[in-house]
Amino acid sequence: MTETITVDRPRERVALITLNRPKALNALNLRAMREITGAAAELDGDPEIGAIVLTGSPRAFAAGADIKEMAPRSFSDVHAADWFAGWDALSRVRKPLVAAVAGYALGGGCELAMMCDLLIAAETAKFGQPEITLGVIPGMGGSQRLTRAVGKAKAMDLCLTGRTMDAQEAERAGLVSRIVPADTLLDEALDAAATIAGMSAPATMMAKEAVNRAFETGLSDGLLFERRVFHSTFATHDQKEGMAAFTEKREPRFRHA
Ligand code: CAA
What we know:
Blueprint: E1 5-11, E2 14-19, H1 30-44, E3 51-55, E4 60-62, H2 67-70, H3 75-80, H4 88-91, E5 97-101, E6 104-106, H5 108-115, E7 118-122, E8 126-128, H6 142-150, H7 152-161, E9 164-166, H8 167-173, E10 178-180, H9 185-197, H10 201-216, H11 219-233, H12 237-247
Parallel strand pairs: 2-3, 3-5, 4-6, 5-7, 6-8, 7-10
Antiparallel strand pairs: 1-2, 8-9
Bound molecules: acetoacetyl-coenzyme A.
């Protein structure tokens, strides 16, 4: 029984994880971390699911890690527990994750959105790393993923001043994949997830792995990795089917395996 999230299957092969702590603007406590990463891992292993959407509420995707839970902790508490290390489990999810972000995505909320593969933002979305205003720094990847996504200039600005950026600025900076009207956000995110889930499952996992490799390695290693993975797609049923369908001018029937 989950307390901080709900999990649904609103479309064929698409799962939806909704953060559900509205009174705390979906602040991410330890329980939320365990429930989100646990649900994502379970869905990752489910052959009936091809993509996962993660969303919050119209007011807040998530307003950060739970400040009230963190406030009384000492250095040895957070060091011994390796506070936030549990979020790494989300990076191990191999199926595409789509973040549907409306309202505040601050601190851990921004970092959680950045752990996803596609970030679809409502016009109302506000992104920021305001940890500095609390006397701390980002701890769920903000200083690293934000810098890789938007570059040093903007990452420094957000991490040092704590200011927020709106959806337009975030899209211009390269953080956001698409901006959509707030009232269609969930539909657009579910549509994108359904499109992805309709593709070859091995190919989507390989594409995700290849794009992510660009963040981890140099260009020549990345190009070699991409080429070898590309070669390996020729061992799948879906490569035969996808290319045959193109030649025969019909829709492909991927087996997703
Ligand atoms: N943790 C715990 N509770 C939070 C929270 C958070 N991150 N953000 C909001 N809440 C709670 C508020 O305490 C309040 O609860 P009460 O009614 O019980 O007081 C409720 O949510 C509503 O919040 P506000 O009354 O503050 O709403 P607002 O509309 O006036 O302001 C806001 C909205 C600007 C987002 C403001 O809530 C805010 O600044 N929140 C904190 C943002 C922040 O600093 N996030 C970073 C956290 S640290 C972090 O994330 C570390 C990391 O790297 C992982």
